[in-house]
């Protein structure tokens, strides 16, 4: 059996998962990253995407996250998400609401930097929608 580490995914609404994992794949700001036991200490921002967890106790689990940050240490990984839900609980209406809000934010941006951030977030939400919601 592979080495394990403690993984926690926390959103403002609830603790989604807290258990030992063999592997976690995170949507980091610079791209997807795989966390394994004994990972070098890292802190990273999280972009909207899917977190895939392989717990030691059973089947792979997937969660949609909408930003946040992860603190990775050799024996633990804690992801503090701005918002997160199990992929199976995510519905098209909720995602569309988030996309429409991101469009309004991009249109209302007061400067180029704010507009660029809002457009990037919108693109990430659209990519997430295409990846997990069937047409």
Shape: globular
CATH architecture name of the largest domain: Sandwich
Portion of residues in beta strands equals: 35-45%
> Segments where pLDDT lies below 50 for 5+ residues?
none
Gyration radius over CA: 16 Å
Oligomer: single chain
Count of runs of 4 or more consecutive helical residues: 2
- Helix-strand string: EEEEEEEEEHH
Question: Can you say what the CATH homologous superfamily of the largest domain is?
Answer: F0F1 ATP synthase delta/epsilon subunit, N-terminal
Terminal Cα span: 38 Å
Which secondary-structure class do the elements indicate?
alpha+beta
Total number of beta strands: 9
Give the domain tally.
2
CATH class of the largest domain: Mainly Beta
Protein described:
The protein has 135 residues and is α+β, with helices and mostly antiparallel strands. The protein has two domains: 83 residues, ATP Synthase, domain 1 (Sandwich), CATH 2.60.15; 42 residues. It is built from two helices and nine strands. Strands 1, 2, 3, 4, 5, 6, 7, 8 and 9 form a nine-stranded mixed beta sheet that branches.
């Amino acid at each position: 059996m592979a080495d394990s580490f403690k993984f926690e995914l926390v959103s403002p609404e609830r603790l989604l998962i807290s258990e030992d994992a063999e592997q976690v794949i995170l949507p980091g700001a610079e791209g997807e990253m795989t966390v394994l036991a004994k990972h070098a200490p890292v802190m990273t921002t999280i972009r909207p995407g899917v977190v895939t967890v392989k717990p030691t106790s059973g089947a792979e689990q997937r969660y949609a996250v909408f930003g946040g940050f992860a603190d990775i240490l050799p024996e633990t990984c804690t992801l503090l998400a701005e918002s997160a839900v199990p992929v199976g609980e995510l519905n098209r209406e909720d995602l569309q609401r988030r996309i429409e809000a991101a469009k309004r934010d991009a249109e209302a941006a007061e400067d180029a930097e704010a507009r660029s951030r809002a457009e990037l977030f919108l693109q990430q939400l659209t990519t997430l929608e295409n990846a997990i919601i069937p047409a």
